[in-house]
Design a protein that fits this description.
This protein has 156 residues and is an alpha+beta fold. Helix content is 20%, strand content 44%. An eight-stranded antiparallel beta barrel has the order 1-2-3-4-5-6-7-8. A hairpin with a 5-residue loop joins strand 6 and strand 7. The radius of gyration is 19 Å and the shape is globular.
């Protein structure tokens, strides 16, 4: 009887670990598809609010047309805002990842700073991935409710 129970426990552990490994493998495959240059083609949100994402001090409309380079083999990249009007011209290095819950996290890495020393960052929901598009959704708390900001990316 003890042997059967032990086999059952080992079998369950094996199935859970295989399931977790498969999930991690699927997530890694999704991350690898992000390799390359991307452009934010639109930013959608409730327009009655003024959204200033990612501590840039710039309106969300400034991110339309921004260029993102993602390098999955070392989870690094950058984004660039081209400026014009009230929008700044800026390029930021980033470190990113996509976890098994389909969340895209990234942190801005300033020149001369190691990524491991940066503890603050952003977590967005990763949605609607195709070979040429994907969407990141940022949940912004405001006056007791959550505003959703949709960043729609297209491959360049």
């Amino acid at each position: 009887m003890k042997k059967i129970l032990l086999v059952g426990i080992l079998g369950t552990t094996f199935l859970v670990s295989c399931s977790t490994a498969k999930q991690a493998q699927n997530t890694r495959a999704e991350v690898l598809k992000l390799k390359g240059n991307w452009e934010i083609t639109s930013v959608d949100y409730e327009k009655e609010y003024k959204i200033k994402p990612f501590d840039e001090g710039a309106d969300a409309k400034c991110f339309v047309g921004s260029q993102w380079t993602l390098i999955p083999n070392n989870n690094t990249g950058s984004y660039s805002l081209s400026g014009g009007g009230d929008c700044p011209t800026v390029t930021r290095a980033i470190k990113f990842d996509v976890n098994s819950e389909k969340q895209f996290s990234f942190k801005v890495i300033d020149a001369g700073v190691k990524a491991k020393n940066v503890t603050a960052g952003y977590v967005l929901d990763f949605q609607n991935q195709t070979p040429t598009t994907f969407t990141l959704v940022q949940n912004v708390p405001f006056e007791g409710k959550i505003l959703k900001v949709y960043y729609n990316f297209t491959k360049k």
